[in-house]
Amino acid sequence: MPDILWNDYLYRPLLNILIWLYNNWAGQNLGWAVVILTVALRVILLPFSIINERNAVRYERLHERIEGLEKAFKNDPVQLKEEIRNVMHYYRVSPWAKTVVLGILGLVLVLLYQVFLGGMEPIKIARALYDWNDAPGTVNTIFFGFDIALRSLLWSGAAGVWIFLDLYWTQRKSAQSATKGEVMFIIFFPFFIFVLLWWLPMVKSIFILTSMAFSGTITVLRKLFVKTPKPKAAH
């Protein structure tokens, strides 16, 4: 029963959408089909991304407010603790929207792995296609000179470097110095992602890079058009 649910309601629909994009919008290039699929998925998840960006604004306001409280009550740790508790309750931020986005993206990543696991064999693909979808025959998996069905040191490295820079700049914007644990995370987490992506077909790197580019665009637009309000003075 779980296999039927997975194949009929998750794997086959994703494969059919991917092949339809390949045939109609991607110029019969599977790499571009994956890019279009990723962007379309992020557009569908845009309401959750907007909520996540709104939470990011709240985090910034919360951080500034706590810094002000630490200065105002530096000689009264008991009152400081109480004020911080009140402020955190006021700026309560739920991570559910980000969890939904990451969960769905993770699911699609696993499904893409299954698509490429047995190779892009025309006969295997044709058997899984719906009647309204045309079998493409030989599938073009070359993307900017790289075969997305194979491993790629360059593309996995690009994903790892992007993640490192994102974590690094996020930490630099923080008013507090990074702890030893945070420094270790900034260094080793991108390295772990790099190794993992290098071990997997290059299509995973394309998916992650496209998704990060979309997230980065949303963040830039938010910073350009949505100003973070000044936090209220501590009572």
Q: Which short descriptors sum up this protein?
A:
single chain, 235 residues, mainly alpha, two-stranded antiparallel sheet, 9 helices, 2 strands, Membrane insertase YidC/Oxa/ALB C-terminal domain-containing protein, transmembrane, YidC/Oxa/ALB_C
Helix content range of the residues, please?
A: over 70%
| Broad structural category | mainly alpha
Helical stretch count?
Answer: 9
The average pLDDT is: 88
The N- and C-terminal alpha carbons lie at a distance of: 59 Å
Number of strands: 2
Sheet with the most strands: spatial strand order: 1-2
What percent strand?
A: under 5%
User: What general outline do the C-alpha atoms trace?
Assistant: elongated
- Low-pLDDT stretches are none
Taking all Cα atoms into account, the compactness measure Rg is 22 Å
Task: Please describe what this structure looks like.
The chain is an all-alpha fold. The protein has a domain at 2-145. Helices cover 74% and strands 2% of the residues. It contains nine helices and two strands, in the order ααααααββααα. The chain has helices at residues 2-24, 30-44, 46-72, 77-90, 96-117, 122-128, 153-173, 180-199, 202-225; strands at residues 142-143, 146-147. It has a two-stranded antiparallel ribbon with strand order 1-2. β1 and β2 (146-147) form a beta hairpin. α1 (2-24) packs across α2 and α7 (153-173) packs antiparallel against α8 (180-199). The longest helix has 27 residues, at 46-72. It is elongated and about 75 Å long. The mean pLDDT is 88. It is found in: Membrane. It holds the Pfam family 60KD_IMP. InterPro entries: YidC/Oxa/ALB_C (IPR028055).
